[in-house]
Design brief:
Layout (H helix, E strand, L loop, with lengths): L10 H18 L6 E2 L11 H7 L3 H9 L2 E2 L18 H9 L5 H9 L10 E3 L11 E3 L4 E3 L10 H6 L3 E3 H13 L3 E3 L5 E3 L6 H13 L10 H15 L13
Antiparallel strand pairs: 1-2, 3-4, 4-5, 5-6, 7-8
Helix pairs in contact: 1-7, 2-4
Length: about 250
């Protein structure tokens, strides 16, 4: 892990890291159509009013205005991290502007415990319920934090000092490596599991075997669509409870 003094923040570097991560996921399981790119000039819904209601800085606004996001339809959309959805701040700001969502509720869903202790320069990358893993991006220090519950109730100085952190590009490279090694394992185009959950042991090994049969992580041999179809077929035979009726790899 690099020293804090060696890490700096670059908005362009951060945007490129997120975009590169989503594009990587499309090689394994994610549908390309589920990536939403900002229009020229950025997402119009990310307004000063919405950001002010979220209590975030102008730099957070500039970042959120130009990030790509993942589509989040009624069924929750694709997970880009085990058991977790990445936040769609374009959609969240639209709801805030329309008065359809409470900004504090949105912050709690993204920042989890102690949301009021998270500095204005920091924004959550994920959003969801109790199983969602909070990841916080610091637009001043240029790093991503793990679960803030360990340090958010502390003072600002302690908030900076405690908890696991990574430089932003390094963090996304670590996630890619987890997928390459099949430590993070997609069940389909929507759901991602991991080897760290003891309750998933049997199905994880089952899925790992199928991905390897289809050539992953060798992209010269791996065919995403054929692999996902095979997974669905074999899940129906052995683990039918894990087949998602909302998911269709052909779409």
């Amino acid at each position: 892990m690099p020293e804090l003094c060696d890490i700096s923040y670059s908005r362009e570097e951060c945007i490129a890291a997120v975009r590169g991560y989503y594009q990587f996921l499309t090689t394994l399981y994610l549908k390309e159509s589920d990536i939403l790119e900002p229009p020229e000039g950025g997402w119009p819904s990310v307004t000063p009013s919405a950001i002010q209601q979220l209590g975030k800085t102008d730099e957070v606004a500039s970042l959120l205005r130009h990030l790509p996001y993942l589509r989040l339809p009624g069924n929750g959309g694709p997970q880009a991290f085990p058991y977790s959805h990445f936040a769609n701040w374009e959609e969240a700001c639209t709801y805030i502007n329309q008065g359809r969502s409470d900004p504090e509720g949105i912050k709690v869903c993204s920042e989890d415990h102690g949301a009021n202790d998270v500095p204005p320069r920091v924004v959550g990358l994920t959003s969801g319920g109790r199983n969602n893993y909070p990841l916080l991006l610091d637009t001043e220090l240029g790093r991503i934090w793990g679960d803030p519950y360990d340090y958010a109730p502390m003072s600002e100085a302690e908030w900076r000092a405690e908890g696991a952190y990574w430089a932003i590009p390094d963090f996304f490279e670590i996630l890619k490596d987890q997928f390459r090694r099949l430590l993070f394992v997609p069940t389909n185009t929507l759901i991602v599991r991991d080897v760290y959950n003891p309750h998933s042991a049997g199905i994880i090994e089952f899925l790992q075997g199928i991905y390897r049969e289809h050539g992953w992580p060798d992209l010269e041999h791996y065919n995403k669509l054929e692999c996902l179809k095979d997974i669905r077929k074999r899940l129906m035979e052995k683990y039918p409870d894990h087949v998602d009726s909302n998911e269709d790899p052909n779409e």
